[in-house]
Amino acid sequence: MAKYRCTVCNYVFDEEKEVRKFSDLSKEWVCPIRGARKSAFILLSEAIEQKKEGMTVSDVLIDQITEWGVKYVFGVPGTSTLGIVDAIN
User: What pTM value is reported for the model?
Assistant: First the structure.
């Protein structure tokens, strides 16, 4: 089973959890978080491959917590956390 990530909000459609294939969704289906069209989704393994070159530790951290389903991150932006702030954007 595959996972697809919304390029707008990073919502992950997991075929295993949804018990249906992404390709079986209608063309009118939209992201439940931001309402992005189905065309805004990419296969998660492709997204990782595209991003590997030039990834930072902060990028890896944010990718991982996104996969865990973390939706909110709280903190005070400053020089020691700017890498993480950049990775979130």
Answer: 0.55
